[in-house]
Amino acid sequence: MKALAIFLGIVGPWQIAIIVVLVVLLFGGKKIPELMKGLGTGIKEFKDATKKEENTDNNKE
């Protein structure tokens, strides 16, 4: 969470707007939902894997 606060302190609203515009220009409006779906799936799999690892660590103790 601290890293996010540092990132948001460095990157202001104008920089975020520029990044969003560049992403739209590079990938187009039709590809962005597919990219976000893939990102969401990846994050969900990562969370599931960390929970699974956490459960196996608790069972060993």
Description:
- This protein has 61 residues and is mainly alpha-helical.
- The protein has one domain (2-60).
- It has two helices and no strands.
- It has helices at residues 2-10, 13-60.
- The longest helix is centred in the middle third of the chain and has 48 residues, at 13-60.
Which short descriptors sum up this protein?
93% helix, mainly alpha, single chain
Structural class: mainly alpha
Q: Pick out the low-confidence regions.
A: none
What summary fits the major beta sheet?
A: none
- Shape call: flat
**Helix percentage:** over 70%
What percent of residues are in strands?
A: under 5%
Short description:
With 61 residues, the protein is an all-alpha fold. The protein contains two helices and no strands.
Give a topology summary.
Elements: H1 2-10, H2 13-60
